[in-house]
Amino acid sequence: MTVDNKIDYLTQIKNIPNLSLYAPLASPALTGNPTAPTPAVSDNDTSIATTAFVMAQRGDIPSGATLPASPLANQLFMHTPTGRRVLMLYTGSAWYPLYSFGTMTVYVNYTSGTDAADKGTGTGTNAYKTLSYMWTQLPSIYYGNIVINVSGETYNETLTCQGKRPGGAYTITITGALETVDTGTMSAGVQGSGTTPGSITDSSKSWTINAMRGMFVAYSGGSGRVIDTNSGDTLISASYFGGTPSGAYEIYKPATILSALSVSNGQNITVYNINIGSNASTSIIATSKSELTLFFCQNSPTGTANPNGLWCKDGATVSINYSSLKQTTANSIIAVENNASFTETGCLIYQSVGTKTGFGIISQLHSTATLRGGAIDNFGSGIFCYRISKILLAGEHVSIRNNTTGAVAQGGGHITNTTIAKYSGNTTDESVTSASYGYID
Description:
Elements: H1 3-14, H2 51-58, E1 63-64, E2 76-79, E3 86-90, E4 95-101, E5 104-108, H3 131-136, E6 141-143, E7 146-150, E8 154-161, E9 165-166, E10 172-175, E11 178-185, E12 188-190, E13 199-201, E14 216-219, E15 225-230, E16 234-237, E17 248-254, E18 256-263, E19 268-272, E20 274-276, E21 282-286, E22 291-295, E23 298-299, E24 308-313, E25 317-321, E26 324-327, E27 334-337, E28 341-345, E29 348-351, E30 359-364, E31 368-372, E32 375-377, E33 381-385, E34 390-393, E35 398-401, E36 405-409, E37 414-416, E38 421-424, E39 428-432, E40 439-440
Parallel strand pairs: 1-2, 4-6, 5-7, 6-9, 7-10, 8-18, 10-19, 18-20, 18-21, 19-22, 21-24, 22-25, 23-26, 24-27, 25-28, 26-29, 27-30, 28-31, 29-32, 30-33, 31-34, 32-35, 33-36, 34-37, 35-38, 36-39, 37-40
Antiparallel strand pairs: 2-3, 3-4, 11-17, 12-13, 13-16, 14-15, 14-17, 15-16
């Protein structure tokens, strides 16, 4: 090899590019924003489908406010009635919702509605009939909030919520109807502070003692609170009001009644204004890392086989706000277990039978319950914590009263911040089994 050839060879080696910067021909992992030629809309081969090709194909999907009367199997249709925009697939026997785009508003009316794919678009005869069918008509993936409006009727069914996933920070909200029980103009109002709850007095009234218990009261310009007890002319709240009550007020309760609610498999829903648990073995179940939030709801079972008003378990997260849960049998209302998390704010949790048995709230198996105000009344144990779990009292004072034992900790259970507990009428306020590492502070 001549000197010139050696120089040329070395130059070529020096100029070889860094091949690690290039994608291989087989299964390349491209980054950034790679481009490719856009095939024709009619193309049907192994060409790369660019985003422009996909958008052009989408233009071929028919749309309209009414579903086609004679669809073909596997046909797509963009359903666009008032309040929704949903991509539907005809399976050969029924329409199936795939995706929703934007806010989706749905209506359910048991008396006048019909369970059909083209319903749910309005009130009355335009609504779905049942909550269970309504859930099947929600898309598997939703790119916008879903708002479900339910008429004030009794739904003798269990609503099972699972299998719906958001395509972003979107929510599913179920809202029931309210029934006005009484109205008036108050003669005095107390916001509440320390161990004193909020109250509204109307000297013109002569209510039956505790006839309004577990209902809700709101005043003009203020948000609602659950009624703990009432005398002939005064309503006592289970928590503080947001300000000093004055002027007109309204007493109301949910007009929508549902037998039971089950939320599972990571589903996330929020519920307003529904009486859940008219006659079910367990009224409300949240499990399998699901998330459930309740506002202004009731749990008022009428049956005799009700072991738990609410069962929060297996990594689920439940938040109950300004709601009332009543137990009519000698059992527990709220059970939190197996790595679950529960929070209540301003709720009334009580047992209406004379025998003081069961638990108001039990936290066990590595779970946490946080209590922010409210009242727990007439149980064997107001709050019971064991099996390496926690109950935390936070925020407003929590009234724990008329129980055989107000607070019990054993088996690694830890109840904290009980300085804000307001004990009254309990046979024993606190019971700690230190030999099994129970702890109350």
